[in-house]
Amino acid sequence: MSTFRTPRRRARLALAAAITVAAALTGPVSQAAGSPSAPTSPSAAPSPGAPGLGDPIFPLDGNGGYQVNRYLLDFDWQAPRTPFEAATTVKATATQALSRFDLDFAGNTLHTVTVDGTTATAVRDGDELVITPAKPLAKGKPFTVKVTYTADPTQTRHRDDAIEDYGWIPTPDGTVLYPQPNGAKMIFPSNDHPSQRAPITFRITTPPGLTAVAGGALTGRAEQADGRVKWTYDSEQPVATQLAQLAIGRFTFVDSTGPHGLPIRDVVPDDLVASTEQYRKLTADHIAWLEERLGPYPFNRYGLLVGDTDLGVALETQTLSLIPKADLLGDRVGAERNLVHELTHQWTGDSVGIKSWSDLWLSEGHARFYERLYSQAHGGDSFEATMKTAYASHDQWRHDYGAPAEPTEPNLFKRMRYDGSTLVLYALREKVGQETFGRIERAWVTEYRGKIASTQDYVDLASKVAGQDLDGFLHPWLYGAKTPPMPHHPDWVVNPVQG
């Protein structure tokens, strides 16, 4: 997600209702997507799966006791801001003997829940859907949960940081999704944590004249007897719930080709095709530029979804970045900053996922780093000058928003996770040199391609590639209360903390 705002942004969406904070669990988030709860012996008595993974930021997000293998979403779309019938099928495997388990599910009117075709008991507890199957589930058993409900496409929530409003984002003739950070639960029942990734099949039925699009590949389009159209998409690779995208509207698909024959599919509201073309057509060049630094693009396709909304910020939804129309109707420098930022996320944040929300600096810091680097060479501000400015404010940001790898929930998407985290990468490049830093970066997106990784994973890999222990250098940058000296810049000064 980019926080850079173009001069022509319009007013923000209205504030949504405040969130009631759930009771926090204790303990660290799981370090492996496939093992969200403590191991149990095959003969262990069935017990409840944990209602959350214990992430320090959102402790009740995600769930224990099972691993999702695939989501199948069936949406019978009607009209903007109009409730519609929906069903989510979750194919999963029990990682412990389960007497009951949770799905993250907020709002929406619940109808039925079945486990392996048999009616299950389901109780709502805040944002948790607590499901008790008719029979306990054995450890290692594959099982299928189907939840039917009436979906509410007006649901949004609000954050007082760069995210602002998230969830279902209305457009004049449909919707786009903004599920970051944990808004997927407003759209479908899920394991809503970035470490828990699974493929998604989208099956959306729309009225005549409307198009549905989702991340991944279009695998089917079938006209129904009543004139409605059923669209089927497959994400192709596992995707974190916060990176899922589904949009409905009067769209034109604009197809082109990127480096090495990569399919590029832009999805554009019909009346914005011509006015956004100038900057949309730069995508192939942006991909080529990033491939020189980070290696091959990590997915099978890419494209831009132009949002006909007043949405304040773009979002790196996997293989189909959501770009508000204002980003594409302003100046070229501003447009390219946002386009390169969201594209960079396809490598760092999407392909290389984060293990916990405290690792967000790895995602946003990298995206801002390459955004700034590209912009400097294409008419934008000096990278060094922006980093010197960030350095001067870094102690204040540490005081106000937490160190780069130690965010708190209200400050998760504040300035420190962007230019403040980019400064850590800039300091590392100054420490090891540009050539070694480049090798670290390529190794990072190669070794962890399609996986989740932590801050410590990055520190360890950087040390290995550089041939020196960098933990002592990076730890103060990532966790310290004070900003360390910047290598090779003894004249850089940190401003005193105010307040």
Automatic annotation (TrEMBL):
Q: What is its main location?
A: cytoplasm
What EC number is given for this enzyme?
3.4.11.2
Q: Which PANTHER family match?
A: LEUKOTRIENE A-4 HYDROLASE (PTHR45726)
Q: Tell me the protein's name.
A: Aminopeptidase N
Signal peptide location: 1-32
- Spans of biased composition, class Low complexity? 29-47
The chain positions of domain Aminopeptidase N-like N-terminal read 70-241
Query: Which PROSITE patterns is this protein grouped with?
Result: TAT
Q: Which domain of life is it from?
A: Bacteria
Q: Which taxonomic lineage does the organism of this UniProt entry have? A: Bacteria, Bacillati, Actinomycetota, Actinomycetes, Kitasatosporales
